[in-house]
Amino acid sequence: MKRASAYLLQSLVPLGAVAITVALCLFTVRGQEADQAAMVAMGQSSNRVVGLGSYLGTTFVPAASVLVVAASVLFALVRRRIGQAAAAALLFAGSAVTSQLLKNEVLARPALLSDAGWYGNSLPSGHVSLAVAAACAVVFVLPRGPKLVAAPVVAAGALLAGVGIIAAGWHRPSDVIAATLLVGCWCAISAGVVGLASQLNPNRRAIVAPGTTIAAPATAALLLVGSAVSAVALALGYAASTWSTVSSVALMAVTVVLTSLAAAAISSDGRVFRV
Questions:
Q1: CA 250, CA 269: separation in Å to the nearest integer?
Q2: Structural domain contains residue 251
Q3: What Pfam families does the annotation carry (predicted)?
């Protein structure tokens, strides 16, 4: 019970970073200026990798993400890892729904700039939420050994889609950051929910892998804090006018990779999931 509650509390870390990102990137002049300038700069890139990301991100992310998550859940069910299957489905659905609600129903982008064109709110990115959530779902259901190998690989694919969507002019860097943080939040929530549910099962027999008693939640906490710090660093860089396009991409990369690694740490916890 304490372990599950700890993960639910950990979900507040990325959520707090989302609040700071919104406050500085969405509701300040400097934040909007820097975010808009970063999007324009990426859109002018002639890099072929960025171009590939733009094509893949704007064309295949929704359908591919759903297929990846469906395959992940099926894989977990075949292995009789019900908790992993439930957590993967929950983190994907929660991330997708929360992103759409925040973007379309809760947040509005104030018109603080006079020459930035369209002012429709695009934070958080629904496409990036799907891509990062699908990456984390894959990590959640893999056996304990391959998790750390797969995490940076699938994170790279999600980051490529995020950069590509910015280059296409669909989203700004803060949109990608906020979407990634929300996925991290739902990774922790899903572990907490599955952990609480498993405690209610009197016939449950936890299979605890060596070294997971303390290492998994502590490592997950550190990784979630790291992803939150990188996100806040981007927002503060915007506010202080010390940002650059390179730093924006670098901090996005750190946030996405650390979130994926946090998913690996969370899902390797033998007291919550069967490993």
A1: 29
A2: yes
A3: PAP2
Rounded Cα gap, residues 29 and 136, in angstroms? 34
In a domain, 21, yes or no: yes
C-beta separation of 161 from 198 below 8 A: no
Tell me which DSSP letter residue 26 carries: I
Domain count, the chain: 1
Q: Output the CA–CA distances (angstroms, integers) from residue 165 to 112, 179, 188, 218, in the order listed.
A: 23, 13, 26, 33
Spatial contact of 187 and 262, defined as CB atoms under 8 Å apart: yes
DSSP 117-159: -------S-HHHHHHHHHHHHHHHHS-HHHHHHHHHHHHHHHH
Q: What is the DSSP string of 62-100?
A: HHHHHHHHHHHHHHHHHTT-HHHHHHHHHHHHHHHHHHH
> Per residue in 72-86, pLDDT tens?
999 999 999 999 999
Query: pLDDT band for position 212 (50/70/90)?
Result: very low
Q: Which domain holds residue 179?
A: 2-111+119-267
Q: How far apart are the C-alpha atoms of 133 and 262, rounded to whole Å?
A: 12
Tell whether 176 is covered by a domain.
yes
Determine, yes or no, domain membership for 95.
yes
Buried b (16+ CB within 10 A) or exposed e, 222-251: ebbbbbbebbbbbbebbbeeebebeebbeb
Across 134-162, average pLDDT: 93
Look up the pTM and report it: 0.94
